Amino acid sequence: MSTSIANAPYHHGDLRNALLESALIILEREGEAGLGLRDVARAVGVSAAAPYRHFDGRGALLEALAVTGYQRFTRLMETIATDDTLDHMSAMGRTYVKFALDNPNLFRLMFSPALRRDNRPGLRMAADAAYRTLRHVTGEDVDTDRVAALAAWARVHGLAVLLLDGQIAIQAGEDIEALVAEIIDKH
Amino acid sequence: MSTSIANAPYHHGDLRNALLESALIILEREGEAGLGLRDVARAVGVSAAAPYRHFDGRGALLEALAVTGYQRFTRLMETIATDDTLDHMSAMGRTYVKFALDNPNLFRLMFSPALRRDNRPGLRMAADAAYRTLRHVTGEDVDTDRVAALAAWARVHGLAVLLLDGQIAIQAGEDIEALVAEIIDKH
DNA sequence: CGATGGATGTTGACATTGTTCACTTTGCTC
DNA sequence: GAGCAAAGTGAACAATGTCAACATCCATCG
After folding, report:
1. If interface means Cβ-Cβ distance under 8 Å, which residues of chain A face chain B?
2. C10 C1' – B23 CA distance, angstroms?
3. HTH tetR-type domain spans which residues (chains A, B) (predicted)?
């Protein structure tokens, strides 16, 4: 509706969001390295220089993507926090891993060192908000024991990363979610 | 020694290794994205096309770097395996994390999804050898319990990645190695 | 020996990318 | 309606990965 290829008006109207949507699709299909600024512009049907009216270069586009990723992640964690029928600690871990597996390249981008290299305050803030929610979800019982909290976080994050990179051998027909739950609930 | 800048001979003599050494230095200083094939050639004092006589493009150079990384990693683990005075499980974890912190960008490259994307048998073999050694070091007691083994690996790997990305807040003057040991030895 | 061929480097070119600049088009405000 | 800022265009630039054609060297064989 917003983008009719034929008879495209000079002004797009909502280019910034259109760029982000296309960029997210390309990111998940091609990976960060395959996400070219010109590709995004081409996908939206706009000139190569147009994105610069909305983003301060390629890095800023990536940052915006990562920020939306953190926001979606945070929202997921919040829904867990408000559900009292759950074991928060376990549900958090399973959702954490599921988010990574459902959005592999977005997840990788969120933790991309290239983005952290140049100081991007927006990213830092979105990430901090996510971690705050994380700590809130896992509750005070863990918050008081820093070592235990870090151990739990490391286990969940490591599991997500290893699964994402295909490092953990999955046997044919194996239920990954069940395996994840088993690992997370160990002890 | 081999490369005297002035009076450089037409044939380098050991260009392949010289390229790898320079590439490793640049990698650790600039990150994978900042590692340009032309930069490496320039650093060695050779033309931009010369590396193609020794590597099948940029990806192959990166693969060779990652392979040497896995080899060094494997050698580290083997020295632990032959030392009977150690708690293998704990020492493995601490060494794992230390390797990541000592060679951050090399470690990241070893687990880079971009490299795994195109099937690189050499990389796969080097990685498999490393994991075999890992399983050997941690001993049969864990090998029999797949879930426990994966949980331990995930915790160690996650800890490495989170530290690498600066996600774990380190208080001023804190002893990181001690914190790592504490987290790894938890339970 | 001396020529000769394969390995190793060089030069120059090409397509592509991120980015900038000058310009044009559009919609909104007095 | 005049004019101005926002939003988009097109041409250009430097840099990159890569390749093809040419140059140089080293080792081997008559």
Report:
1. 31, 33, 104-105, 108, 111, 113-114, 116-117, 127, 131, 147-148, 150-151, 153-162, 164-168, 179, 182-183, 186-187
2. 21
3. 13-73
